Amino acid sequence: MSLKIERDQNRFRQIVRGKIRENLRKYVTHGEMIGRKGKDLISIPLPQLETPHFRFGDNGAGGAGQGEGEPGDPLGHGKGQDGHGPAGDAPGGHILEVEVSLEELAEILGNELELPRIEPKGQETISEEKARYNSIRRTGPESLRHFKRTYVQALRRQIASSSYNAVRPIVVPIREDKRYRSWDVTTEPVANAAIIYMMDVSGSMTDEQKEIVRTESFWIDTWLQSNYDGVERRYIIHDAAAKEVDEHTFYHTRESGGTRISAAYKVGAQLIEREFPPADWNIYCFQFSDGDNWGEDNDQALRILKENIVPHVNLFCYGQVESPYGSGEYIRSLDDAMGNTENVVLSEIADKDAIFESIKTFLGKGK
Q1: What per-residue string of b and e applies to 201-217 under the rule 16 or more CB within 10 Å gives b?
Q2: What is the number of domains present in the chain?
Q3: pTM of the predicted model, to two decimals?
Q4: How far apart are CA 142 and CA 180, in angstroms?
Q5: pLDDT in tens, 33-55
Q6: For the chain, does the N or the C end have fewer beta carbons within 10 angstroms?
């Protein structure tokens, strides 16, 4: 029975994964999952997972090819077709929600976008000792007693000694039966990652543009966390001035003011120097803007980026969201100055439908 349940459960998970793959572009585009995110799991709405089956009913209850009718008449019982009418006793259709781990979600994302696994830099130089419980011993502290192994050993002993009573199946372990989990200490490389998000919140960035940033950032987080044991995230907002903020503030700040991109780069460079030494951290920077920048600031911004950020990060990604108010000029300046730099990636995000390809552009290098 347990094997059948496990087989059915695995089959169901395959169906769920297939549905997620089938609808992944919709989820990425519209942010279906973000509001359902828990600590380690995502609750996903999956419609139409019902297994096909026969349903018996009364003959002559109406339907295609039965009785009189006119072209255009609705099929079925004819009552309550528009959702109105007296209360009924039949169940309605519902959308099933299933929980999927972030690890599974990242695997599906990587497969669908054909993302290469990331090769962290500097992982050979940092290591730490980890204890792995991978063996069983006869001695140890009671807190590590392996109850299943102990029970099986006691049961075997009682059966062998003919002291086991099938009518009164009481199994009492003695000292020789007890088994304990044990560990080996191994040295493993450590690859920590830091993600620094920078977003323009000037007057030309609307709530729609920030929703695009929020959705794309969620999927970026999901993929990077699947490649690293520890991921630190930092958020910087800027108009003419810049500051580090928490995640909620990053996505909910009201837009206002002019634009100086160099202000965000200064805060980002200081953050890297202060908290994330490049020798110890894999650093990813994602900047989102509508491409509007005070004209005289471009040279200073590009200088700071070229000297103080790009040499120290695995990847610097600039995503330009289309805005009815922004000039869109900055991506061209950035392309002219650093378009051929290996760890600089540029993406134009016209609308929500462009998020899918933008993620692939950003993460497709496997850095």
Answers
A1: bbbbbbeebbbbbbbbb
A2: 3
A3: 0.64
A4: 8
A5: 565 555 556 666 555 444 445 55
A6: N
